[in-house]
Amino acid sequence: MAQTKNLCAQVPIDLHQKISEAREQTGLTTAQYITNLITEYFKMKENGGNEIMTNGKTRTLAFQIDEELFQRIKDHLDRESARLGRKFTQKEFVMGLIEQALTEAEAALDASPNTAPVSPSEAPDEPDEDEGQAEDKGQR
How much is the pTM? Predict the structure, then answer.
């Protein structure tokens, strides 16, 4: 085992809270978590600030949404945080939705392997409900 030395630092309470929540999600001890953070920081500095983007392990997915949907999401996160007794993050929420959707899509694909997925541009045009009803009335 490598030799270790204690490192102690006073940090603002809000930063301490963020670190504690993130550490809890990883299941690491505080020493392990802080060691990983500092190690990643120095690797990033060595790579000109691009360590996370170049390591092949993580990618960024970003998009904009309208204010109303954003507020609905924030309200949901607040309710879930209260229910769980810990902060439920946007990342957890979105990652959970993505994982669920991919699992369902993959299960559907496995259930019907002879059916090729249809992209929206290849989907046949469907008549509007009103148009279909108007055609039915004209045929009577």
Answer: 0.43
